[in-house]
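hi support,

uploading two proteins for the ticket. first:
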Amino acid sequence: MLNVSFDQSEKSTFLYSPHFHFPTRNESESNQLNVQLSLPLNLDRNNVENFIWNGFDRYYGANIKNFLPNLISIRQKGEIQSTLGLKIASEGPIFIEQYLKKSIELFFQKENVTRKQIGEVGNLFGTNKTFTRQLFIIAALVASKAGISKLVFCATPQIKMILRNLCMSVFYIAEADPNKLGQESNHWGSYYDTSPELIAIDIDQAIYLIERSERYSEIAYTFSSQIEDIANNLLK
């Protein structure tokens, strides 16, 4: 599920601006930006999970208990700024399938998409709009290199707005009905008050947009080696 939140302060509210600025490669290096994959047994895994947990607690009053196996984070001078989780559907049931009457791959049957080509995104939390937008683009690039053709989300209206501002088309799957979660829905605080929806994005379309955008291509270039490493080391 797309466990998504973000800091609502004036400094970090995710609003689209035509003057929105992505850091260049030189700026990223001078600011000591890097992208990192944290797997379940990594030493820093607790730090990433705590970053997510604290964000959801502060924003929704939620008590996050599930973390996806692959946690990808953007860090500045070692401090986590934004993170998201990724799970390949071939690893086992994914969170959003709890809302559905059929397996996730059946929604893409006409495209012959298999479970190993579907990635679930969740545990998304960011404190800065720039880093979180970057992380969406990086996630699409990682997915492409890992052979993933669809990313599926449980998305709030704010996240759908971010995707629209990135010009990414979304495929509607279903409403996210908290009643399908049983007692677990009690852990989510006010999250479901936002009326989240289950959606998907097509990775080929996302890569098409990235390659044709100077700003987005700069992100791909800046973090190219880290994106390659993450794609090669994902738990699949």
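and the second one:
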Amino acid sequence: MFLSLSRYRRSNDGCIARNRFFHKLSLYKKVVSGGKYLNTESTIIPKEKTREWLSKCKFVIAFDNKTYEGYVTEKPFQAYLAGAVPIIYADKSYIKDVNPNSNIC
């Protein structure tokens, strides 16, 4: 099972790569999404429950909306804190702060 972090429709519309990846992966594996956009759950997962919910997943689609130097959101770090492997589409500068062998870029 994969998880997509896509909490807000407006921000998700800005990430064509994330949307394409979500749909293509969904053809092969079950992908769950607890946000407002592409929600596959019976309810929207509240922010305060994100880590608990992510901890049930092996992988997390943690694509940022933009990829320019220095721009990194909470998405990869939420996955790390929950014990999941983030699948990342983000600026590579964040690698200096994490184990480079602990994610999929």
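thanks. also noticed: The longest strand covers residues 59-63.
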